Each structure stands twice: as C-alpha cells, then as structure tokens.
Amino acid sequence: MKENIKLIECPRDALQAYYPIVSTQDKIAYYQTLLKVGFDTLDCGSFVSPKIIPQMADTEAVIKGLNCADTTTKLLTIIANERGAKNAVSFEKIHYLGYPFSVSENFQVRNTGKTIKESFPILERIVRLAQNHDKEVVVYLSMGFGNPYGDPWSPEIIMQWVEQIAALGVTIFSLSDTVGNAQVKDIEVLFSSLIAQYPDFEFGAHFHTHPKFWFEKVNAAFLAGCLRFDGTIKGRGGCPMAQDQLIGNMPTEKLISYLTTYNKLPQSFDVLAFESAYNHSHKIFI
Predict the structure, then answer these.
(1) Cα(82)–Cα(49) distance, integer angstroms
(2) Which residues lie below 8 Å from residue 283, measured CB to CB, with a gap of 6+?
(3) How many domains does the chain have?
(4) Segments forming the whole domain that contains residue 50
(5) If residue 269 lies in a helix (H) or strand (E), which one and from where to where?
(6) Minimal CA–CA distance to 167: which of 190, 207, 204, 201?
(7) Contact 4, 227 (CB under 8 A)
(8) Which of 45, 126, 149, 182 is the most buried (most CB within 10 A)?
(9) Does residue 84 lie within any of the structural domains?
(10) Residue 274 belongs to what H/E stretch?
(11) pLDDT in tens for each of the 286 residues of the chain?
(12) 256 Cβ contact list (under 8 Å, min separation 6)
C-alpha cells in the first residue's frame, strides 16, 4: 500500500450546485491558486450535460486556460458517459477520469440516467478508452455507505462491486458518502477490509458531512488505513443529483488540521499557498 497521503481538492464539487454562474476567467484564476498548494489532484470540472449542471458548461475552456507547467498536481474531471470520456481524453492536461458508479439503483438513474446494469458496460468501455490514451479512471462508489431510497446496501455489496470493477482494470476507488450518512463502524469495516484485500489499490474517502461529524469520519478512515481524502475549502458544495437537503463536503482545512496533528501532511503541501487559495475562495463564493 502506498504510504503517502493524497489530498484531492474538489472545486468542481464545491461549484456544481452553486449560483450565480462563476465566470470562466474567475474559475481559472481560482484554480491557479489551488495548483500552487501541492494537492495531489485537482477535481476541476465535469464533461456532463450543461442543461443538468450549467456551472460546468465551460469545463473545456477552463482546462484550456489552466497553466499546469509549474505544478505536480494532476487534473481530474468527472464524466458520466462515453461522450464525456472522449472529450476528457482529448486533453493532455487531464490525468484522471472520474466515473460515478452508484451501488444504489435509484441514485445511478438520477445521476447518470442509466441503471446499474446499463452503467457497467459503459464503465468497461470508458476504462478501455482511458487506457488507450494513458489516462487513469477513478471510480466513485456513490452512496457507498448507504442511501435514503431503501435500496439494498451492505459492506458485502461494496466488496462485490469493487471485485467486479477491479476486473476491468480499475485500481483507484473513492468511497462516497453522498448524503452524509456514513457510520463509523461501516467506515472502519470497509476501509480495513478493502485495503487488506487489495494492498496495491488506492481507496479514497469522499465524505459529505455535517460540520459536527467531520472528525469521526476522517479519524475512522485514517485509522483503518485510508490515505486518500477528498475535500473542498470550507466544505462547500455537495451533490445536486441527490435531490435531498445538501450536506457539505469534507472541509479541506479540517483535513489539513487533522493530518498536521499526525505529522502526515504531504511534504509537497505549501501551507502559505493554501492560505492564499483559501482567501481567494471568498472572491468566488460570495
């Protein structure tokens, strides 16, 4: 298992349900400050229908406008179908394609317009396309800790899906607490079991959480061996497709505080650059 902590900043997740629409130039200026921080990955956009997520309609223009010459941070964009994947792989700057694969039937239909049965062969083709263009796929297991729709869920279901998706060649999974209902015992069981079974894979935590509960979720995942964490500055954002009261993302500044306590903050992380990006975020989120 890789020993270095990976922090993924997700301004795409922070912005996707935010109004008013932020201009392309303002997004680029903000993302440039984030690229100086030393995050492993910047989740910076999504190639999805602008009718569904209008805030992400300019993803192509944003990618083109970013200067990635002086950063080690890799770019990730979310895609929901083959059309989006074809757009994403055409950009040399993009390293990761993030695909939301929900273990909840209801949410997969809400999020991608496809059933789970329909989505799996789409994912297979996306993985093949990514491999042919030297890209990596990150599979987000949406509703990874349960769902509000009454769809079947258990740690065993997650384990079964990881096994099936891993057979396609995927080695990076992000367990997504889409509606903020993850329980500590389930976090512990899933991360400890998956990491033990697949020691060469990356298993990340994409937590949506109420501010009161961020610590118990991060602590449970970290102590179970999780070394990959997604966050957004001030915990902004959430999933607009959940059709539920939005619960914010994991606040990046809380992750930084937690990891600093354990002396686990990545060596590449520039605290002063983060403060600058944090301050710049107030120009974006008014």
Answers:
(1) 12
(2) 26, 30
(3) 1
(4) 6-284
(5) none
(6) 201
(7) yes
(8) 45
(9) yes
(10) helix 271-284
(11) 346 899 999 999 999 989 999 999 999 999 999 999 999 999 999 999 999 899 999 999 999 999 999 999 999 999 999 999 999 999 999 999 999 999 999 999 998 999 999 999 999 999 999 999 999 999 999 999 999 999 999 999 999 999 999 999 999 999 999 889 999 999 999 999 999 999 999 999 999 998 889 999 999 999 999 999 999 999 998 655 444 455 689 999 999 999 999 999 999 999 999 999 999 999 999 8
(12) 7, 265, 269, 271, 274
CATH for 242: 3.20.20.70
Instruction: Report if residue 1 sits inside a domain.
Output: no
In a domain, 220, yes or no: yes
How far is 196 from 193, CA to CA, in rounded Å? 5
Phi, psi of 31 (to 5 degrees): -65, -35
- Residue 159 tokens read as 């384990």
Q: What is the pTM of this model?
A: 0.95
Taking phi over 0 as left and psi of -120 to 50 as alpha, with beta for the rest, 238 belongs to left
